[in-house]
User: Which sequence fits this backbone?
């Protein structure tokens, strides 16, 4: 039985990547972030690969609902609404 190397998908453009890719070769997006829950560097995908907490939060503005990384600016990248403080600080799984 052959083991395949893990592959991942770019969170920005959907390109298939290798876990070792630090930057997407198609769109240039950074592929790693520091998990706001455990503090470890992890590939940006649905959940942290170490603590399994979600790396994304949905904007609470009913007319927006944009899904985005937790813990960065504190504001929705699409509509500018303030994100829940717990989400910004990485305190909600």
Assistant:
């Amino acid at each position: 039985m052959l083991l395949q190397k893990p592959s991942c998908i770019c969170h920005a453009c959907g390109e298939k990547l290798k876990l070792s890719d630090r930057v997407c070769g198609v769109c240039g997006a950074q592929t790693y972030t520091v998990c706001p829950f455990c503090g470890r560097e992890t590939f940006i995908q649905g959940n942290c690969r170490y603590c399994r907490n979600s790396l994304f939060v949905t904007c609470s503005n009913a007319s927006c609902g944009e899904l985005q990384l937790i813990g960065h600016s504190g504001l929705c990248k699409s509509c500018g609404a303030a994100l829940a403080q717990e989400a910004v600080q990485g305190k909600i799984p």
